[in-house]
């Protein structure tokens, strides 16, 4: 997955988050469902942002960004930007 793919995926997840919040406000889903889906989105976003940072760091230091790999959620969860 290249940088543009990652950015598209992040944009898609942000759009999903907005739809979830709108569905909650419209009464289409319950708060527990929204929280569970948002938590899953946040974990996936953490991984995408981490992968993007890895790719950029490798490129900056002359390494091949294609060697960057998604790390486990447990490793990237809660990283500060």
TrEMBL record:
Pfam families: DUF2630. InterPro entries: Uncharacterised_Rv0898c (IPR020311). Residues 60-74 have a biased composition (Basic and acidic residues). Residues 60-81 are annotated as: Disordered. This is DUF2630 family protein. It comes from Streptomyces odorifer.
């Amino acid at each position: 997955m290249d940088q543009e793919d990652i950015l598209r995926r992040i944009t898609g997840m942000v759009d999903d988050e907005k739809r979830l919040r709108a569905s909650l406000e419209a009464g289409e889903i319950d708060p527990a469902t929204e929280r569970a889906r948002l938590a899953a989105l946040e974990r996936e976003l953490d991984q995408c942002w981490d992968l993007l940072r890895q790719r950029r760091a490798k490129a900056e230091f002359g390494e091949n960004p294609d060697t960057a790999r998604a790390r486990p959620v447990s490793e990237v969860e809660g990283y500060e930007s």
